[in-house]
Amino acid sequence: xxxxxxxxxxxxxxxxLAGSAAAADKLALAGILExxxxxxxxGKSKVVIVRDASLHGAGTxxxxxxxxxxxxxxxxxxxxxEIPVEAWxxxxxxxxxxGKVIGLKVNGLGGRGISTHAALTLAVAERLQQAGVRxxxxxxxxxxxxxxxxxxMTVNTDPSRVRCYGNDVGGYEDAPASWGSxxxxxxxxxxxxxxxxxxLPILKDHNxxxxxxxxxNMYGVADRPFMLHGxxxxxxxxxxxxxxxxxxxxxxxxxxxxxxxxxxxxGFRPERLWYPNALVVGEDxxxxxxxxxxxxxxxxxxxxxxxxxxxxxxxxxxxxxxDAAHRLGTNDPQRIRLVEV
Amino acid sequence: xxxxALRTLGSVKLNTASVVLAIAAVAACAGxxxxxxxxxxxxxxxxxxxxxxxxxxxxxxxxxxxxxxxxEQYLQAGVVSTSTxxxxxxGTLEAVVDVYTMENSAGARKILxxxxxxxxxxxxxxxxxxxxxxxxxxxxxxxxxxxxxxDAPPGTQQALIALAHxxxxxx
Lengths: 341, 171
Hints:
The complex is a heterodimer.
Chain A: H1 4-12, H2 23-39, E1 45-51, H3 64-79, H4 84-91, H5 94-97, E2 102-105, H6 118-130, E3 138-142, H7 145-150, E4 163-166, H8 167-170, E5 177-179, E6 182-184, H9 188-193, E7 196-199, E8 202-206, E9 210-212, H10 230-233, H11 236-242, H12 244-249, E10 250-261, E11 273-274, E12 278-282, H13 285-302, H14 317-322, E13 336-340
Parallel strand pairs in A: 1-13, 2-3, 2-7, 3-4, 7-10, 8-10
Antiparallel strand pairs in A: 1-12, 5-6, 8-9, 10-11, 10-12
Helix pairs in contact in A: 1-2, 3-4, 3-6
Chain B: H1 2-37, E1 49-51, E2 56-59, H2 63-67, H3 71-76, E3 79-89, E4 93-102, H4 105-114, E5 121-123, E6 128-131, E7 135-140, E8 143-149, H5 156-170
C-alpha cells in the first residue's frame, strides 16, 4: 500500500498509472494530488454541504438556475474562491483543463426518480467549459444507455458537443484488474478515455451496502458489479477504490443529495423519498461517505426508523476504506472539517 | 361380441376423453405462455393509461442489470424472471410497472411483506396489495407486481390502483 507521499513521488517519476497514457498525465496527476492535499487543512479532510431549501420549488421539479447557483456556492465554499471559473481552476490542474478528457460519472441505476440529476451534470459541464475545457473533452458516463437515460441524459458520441455514453459503448479491458478481494475488468472509459473523473453519485439507502454514495458509485467501472455485493459490500467497495485507475483518477466528488431515499434503496421508493436539497463536495471519498451516512441516519431517526446498524446494514466498507490497508481517507469525525452552508 | 363392442366403445370414450384433455391442456398451456409473455395492459385497456415502451424481460441471472443492488433480495426470494414496461397516464403522469415472477407464492409474499411499512394502505388487488401515495405493490400467485409513479398529482393512487387491476387481470 502506497502512502500519498510515495505516490506523488512515483507519479513525478512516471512509475505509476500503468495502463494510462503519457508521463505528462502522470505529472498533471501529481499536480492534482498536491492541489487536493492543500484542501486538507490542518490535517483535516474538508467536506462541504450546501443547501437550498427552495431547490425544488413547490413541486418535485428542480429549478435549474438554483442548481447552478448551488453548485457555485459549493465550489466557493470548498475552494474559498467566489468566482466560479477561478474555483474550478483551483481544483482541476491546468494540464487537464487544457485538453484532457474529464469524465463525469453519474449514477442512474436506481432508475428515474433516484438518479443523478441532469441539472447538476449539465451545470458541472457548463462550468468546466467556462474554465477552458472543450465540450468534447467532457464525457458524461455510466454503465449503459438506460442508466444514462434515467439520469435525464441522451447518448451522444459527437465530439463537437459534451459526450455522453456508457460502458456498453466504451467496453471493458480484456485484462482483469485486481486489488484485495476484487478481480474485475475495468471500463475503458476510465482506463483509456479519462485523465480524471469527477464523481457525481446520488445519495441513497442501499439494502446491501447500507448507503451508496461516493465510493459505491465506482461499481459502475466494473464489468461484473453483482460479484461485489457480498458481506454488505465489504471489503469490495474499499478494495475497488484501491485499484490504481480508480484511486488516482477519481478523487473529486460532487455528490447529489438534492433528493434521496432513506430506506428501501437503492431503487426508487417514492414512499421513502426525501429532499435534502443539498450537494456534498469533497476530495476525501471516505470523509464524504461518512458525512453522507450521517445524513441518512439523521433522516431515519427523524422518521423514527432504526439505525442501519440495527437492521444489519452498517456501511462497514467506510471504516475498511479508512483502515491501514486501504488508506483511502478518514472516517474520524475529528479529522473531518465539515463546512455547512 | 357384445363384450367386444363394449370394449371398443370404452376405448373410443377413453380416446375422446384423452383428446379433450389434451386439447384443454394445450389451450391452458398456450394461455399460460401468452400471459407469461406479456402481462402488461395495452394502451387504452385501462382508462387513461398508455403503454409507452416495449416490455423488457430479465432472467434472474441478469436482474442486476436492471435493479443493481436491489436484485439480491429478489434472488433470495426465488425470482425466475422480471419483466418491465413504462406507462403514462393521461399523457402526463409517468410510471413503471415491474412484474417479478417467483418460483412460488411464498417468494412473492416475502418481498411484499419485507417492503411493507406502517404507512402502507391495504388494497384489494390480487392476493394482497399495498398502496402508497405514489406506488402500488401486489402479489398474485407467484407474481409480485410493483407500480411506481414518478410524480404525485391528485388522483395518482387511484390511477395506479386501476392500472394494478389491469395487470392483475392478465396474470
